[in-house]
Each structure stands twice: as structure tokens, then as C-alpha cells.
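Weekly puzzle thread! Below is a chain. First person to post its structure in C-alpha cell form gets bragging rights.
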Amino acid sequence: IALDNLDVVIPAGRVTALVGPDGAGKSTTLRLIAGALVPTEGRIVVGGLDVVRHTGDVQAHLGFVPSRRLLYSDLTIAENLAFFAGLYPADPVAMAERRASLLDLMDLTRFTDRLAGNLSGGMRQKLALACALQHDPGVLLMDEPTTGIDPLARRDLWRLFHRLNRDGLTILLSTPAMDEAIRCHEVIFMDHGRQMARGTPTSLLEHAQ
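Winning reply:
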């Protein structure tokens, strides 16, 4: 059993973290919401749409950054963005404008001709973010987005996450670390596929003491 009677409502307009050890069900939860997996039981609704019945419509409003960076190392930044742009049924002119804005926000404009395989971990994650956001989704899912990234790059990524959230993006991410989760508005602790606790980082830390 990957998820055991998990019943969670994720509020819009906030940064929410799924926290727990390996095998807790965090990645499975994100993949189910993204429509990459089909649940054997239960129902998942995003923006009023059933994920199983309306997968394509839901995915058009979602951005997903998996834990395994799905970038093509032998393609440049520009080529990776162009490839992933083709996966979304968005207006190409609007998407091009959005892409230019994201490159500027993430300080990647100067490096569009650089191969993805030659980027640092932080730059690769910024590129993965840009690929996932160029169709202007309302919800961003990220599976352990800062794992394996140096502290300075991690700080820059969290600044980006909160900037995007202030601009109206709902963010749901997974992390095994509480020092990451305290940067979020709300935390959901998971273990063995179950929700064990939920609340603000402050309230959960106070309760733990």
C-alpha cells in the first residue's frame, strides 16, 4: 500500500510541504496529482476537475518538477525549453513571452546557448522550473526540489519559490527535511502512506516540544 486513506486538501495560493522519510508516499502523492499514476481507489480533484477523468485539462494547469531532472543534457537551455513547450497546448506567442520573463527571473538569459549537461545543480533546477512554468500553470508540484544542491543555490531557489508564490502560484513540494519545510506556509507530515500531522511549521514545532 503506497497511500493509506490519505485525505488531504491543499489550499490555493500557499506553499505546502509534504514531509516524511523515504517511502512515506510523498512522491506517489505528487505523481497521482499530476496524473502520472492512476489511483486504485479514491478521488483526486484539482481546480474542480477529477484528475482521472480530465487528465489533460488538469495537466494544462499544472507544472511538475520530478526528483529526477528530466532535462536533456545534450540540448542547450533554449532547446530544452523549446522541447517542453511543445508538450503544452498554449498560445506560442504568449508562451514565448512567458519564457523570456522566466529566463530573466532565473538569471538564465545569458546562458541560453549553454548545454544543460554543463550547468551547475542550481542552474539545472532553475531550468527545470522554467520548463515546467512556461505554459503559465496555476499549480506547481515539486518532488524534493533542492536535494543535492549546494546551500547558496538552495537559498536562491527558495527565494524564487516565494517570489512565484507571491505572484499567485500555488506550490506543493516534498522534502525529507524539516529545515526545508519551515520555509512553507503549511506542513503535512507523512509516514507509511498516512497523514500523521498537519499545521504551520511554528505550531508543529511547538507541539513537538
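Puzzle host: Confirmed. Bonus trivia for everyone else. Residues 158 and 183 are 8 Å apart (CA to CA).
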